[in-house]
């Protein structure tokens, strides 16, 4: 195990041995589709779980849900079936690794049709099967739709993924501008870059434009970059995770750096509030903004 991995594992163990924490909700979004958002979400979740965090990953990419493909698993029912009373929360969960579970999602609009009455109360009672999660990653859709903003508003952290393409950069900036009305801190990951230098230069350009035109209390944070590497497309075509297939590859090391930066944020989590844990905690927050 390399030095980077050892430090990450020690940090995670420190979090796990401390007094229990509430779940930290992390939304991963993008301005446009096709920038590798779901690839990053799935590999980030895998690396977090690998180092001992209990992770749930919620597929909220409406109409384009593809985390089942990323993890190479079959989905029979999703969260909408639970809200309709056609399945229990436990029945829809898909175990991926010992510390990682996939929560198949559904359209935000559809979800909130069932947001009142006895069925929803029953759902909230069942949701406690995930109360021990350290982290829940929400893989949102691309763009700035209302249902996406709902998830962005409910999460502790928002990560915008983009690539070094003019159209993608423009769309990422539009997402940042809209999201800045909801929160003061937004994280950015640069994907498919040739080098760290290129990634940091592009981030600085986005940040400069944001500070000039949005200003205020907005803090853009550079979370890291993922290099353009053929190993990633090889794994995606095989319906596999590159971080599992190529544990020593550059993109895997870069994912680990990003995970380490996120793990540090876990140290700042407050003591457990049962209403802020797991799937029930996420939906409680969503209801407050709905």
UniProtKB/TrEMBL annotation:
GO biological process assignments: negative regulation of cell division
For this record, the Gene Ontology CC terms, alphabetical, are: cytoplasmic side of plasma membrane; cytosol
Q: Which UniProt keywords apply?
A: ATP-binding, Nucleotide-binding
One example of the protein's molecular function in GO is: ATP hydrolysis activity
- Name the Gene3D superfamilies for this protein: P-loop containing nucleotide triphosphate hydrolases
Q: Where does ATP bind?
A: 32-39
Name the record gives this protein? Cobyrinic acid a,c-diamide synthase
């Amino acid at each position: 195990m390399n030095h980077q991995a050892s430090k990450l594992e020690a940090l995670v163990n420190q979090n796990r041995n401390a007094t229990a924490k509430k779940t930290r909700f992390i939304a991963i979004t993008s301005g446009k589709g096709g920038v590798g958002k779901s690839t990053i979400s799935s590999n980030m979740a895998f690396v977090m779980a690998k180092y001992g965090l209990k992770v749930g990953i919620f597929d909220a990419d409406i109409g384009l849900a593809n985390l089942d493909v990323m993890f190479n698993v079959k989905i029979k029912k999703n969260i909408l079936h639970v809200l309709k009373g056609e399945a229990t929360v436990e029945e829809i969960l898909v175990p991926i690794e010992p510390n990682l579970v996939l929560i198949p999602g559904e359209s935000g609009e559809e979800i909130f049709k069932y947001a009142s009455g006895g069925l929803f109360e029953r759902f909230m009672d069942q949701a406690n099967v995930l109360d021990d999660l350290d982290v829940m990653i929400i893989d949102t859709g691309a763009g700035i739709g209302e249902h996406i903003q709902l998830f962005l508003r409910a999460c502790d952290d928002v990560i915008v993924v983009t690539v070094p393409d003019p159209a993608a950069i423009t769309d990422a900036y539009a997402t940042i501008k809209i999201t800045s009305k909801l929160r003061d801190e937004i994280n950015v990951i640069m994907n498919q870059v040739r080098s760290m230098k290129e990634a940091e230069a592009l981030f600085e350009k986005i940040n400069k434009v944001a500070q000039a035109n949005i200003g205020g209390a907005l803090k853009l944070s550079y979370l890291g970059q993922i290099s353009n590497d053929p190993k990633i497309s090889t794994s995606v075509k095989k319906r596999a995770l590159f971080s599992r297939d190529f544990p020593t590859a550059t993109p895997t090391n870069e994912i680990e750096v990003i995970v380490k930066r996120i793990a540090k944020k876990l140290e700042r989590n407050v003591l457990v509030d049962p209403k802020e844990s797991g799937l029930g905690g996420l939906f409680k927050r969503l209801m407050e903004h709905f």
